[in-house]
Amino acid sequence: MPLGLRSKKKEKSKETSKLVESEAAAPAPAAEAPAASASRLQFHTQLAHGSPTGRVEGFGSARQLYAKIAAAFGIDPAEIMFCTLNTHKADMDKLLGAQIGLEDFIFAHVKGQRKEVEILKTDDVLGLTITDNGTGCAFIKRIKEGSLMDQSKIVCVGDHIETINGKNVSDCRHYEVAKMLKDLEKGRVFKLELIEPMKAFEKLEPRSKGGTLPEAKISRGRETLRLRTKGPATVEEMPNEVEEKAIKKVDELLETYMGIRDIELAATMVEAGRDKKNPDEFAVALDETLGDFAFPDEFVFDVWGAIGDAKQGRLE
Question: Residue 165 carries which DSSP code?
Fold first, then answer.
């Protein structure tokens, strides 16, 4: 299908770059207030396997949040694999993404036992969905039922993939790890070194004086703290119903095309298309904000279509 997005993006890149620069510069004074209020917000946190309750504040990105949590508990930030909201369980539906409800309780899952597995690749599709924590820790978010990887009881949801055939991938993004797994040669044995999240009672330390964890605490407000890779965190309204449906669909498209799940990435893409009038403008916006991914034209069109379907009420 001759879409021609790439050439159009190049033709418009200078014009769009100037537009983005001018738009970014104009509202600078107004942006100061949300950043300041965001820096004063406090969140309660625990280590998921058990710890006293700590408080964190003054962060604007996932990397800064992990550093704050690590400082609160006296651990290395690199030990934190991922965080869940309002549950100490490794529930992949409760992963911390780009937004945190102002009443959410943060549970940090740290590295536990290491393990190794060797698997004969008998199918082109392994059945793994990979995500990451935004700081260089790729882990397994989903294992497709009945797939090749589902047959191995050693590999579990939540496991961090440390090496693939001896190559360390600890600092690789999720899409890079997913591509490496996809490119493994069929008919040959491959080896994975994994780290599972630490489980309760793996360390003989008390959870807290109360002895219970605040499970499933419900946020009553619509405001969230939006974490950003670039720029300060801001307090925003939660995505409306249309945006939520679009984000969910884009996240599914990421899994279909790239073998990853990333709500933060999906939300960023939906945000990029919020005021765009056509797929060409949307493609240019994606190149400006997410150029490192080099998304194929077919994927960009499907994402644009999903955003349009959500706006027209065609998504369930």
Answer: T
Q: Between 5-25 and 297-311, two packed helices, what is the crossing angle to 10 degrees?
A: 60
The mean per-residue pLDDT over the stretch 190-216 comes to: 60
Residue 47 contacts residue 110 (beta carbons within 8 Å)? yes
How many Cβ atoms from other residues are within 10 Å of residue 144's Cβ?
13
Question: Parallel, antiparallel, or unpaired for β 138-143 and 106-120?
Answer: unpaired
Quick one: average pLDDT of 218-222? 43
- 100, 227 contact by CB (below 8 A): yes
pLDDT at position 115 is 96
pTM (global) more than 0.70? no
Residue 239, pLDDT above cutoff 90: no
Closest listed residue to residue 96, CA positions, set 299, 262, 241 = 262
Strand residue runs (E) in 158-300: 160-164, 167-168, 189-197, 223-226, 234-237
Count of beta carbons in the 10 Å neighbourhood of residue 273 = 23
* Higher pLDDT pick, 55 / 288: 55
Nearest to 45 by CA among 121, 96, 120: 96
- The full 3-state SS of 103-163, as one line of letters, equals CCCEEEEEEEEEEEEEEECCCCCCCEEEEECCCCCEEEEEECCCCCHHHCCCCCCCCEEEE
Report residue 206 CA to chain centroid gap: 30
Q: How many C-beta neighbours within 10 Å does residue 197 have?
A: 25
Q: What digits encode the pLDDT tens for the residues 44-57? A: 999 999 999 999 99
For residues 180 and 197, give the distance between their C-alpha atoms in angstroms, rounded to a whole number.
Answer: 23
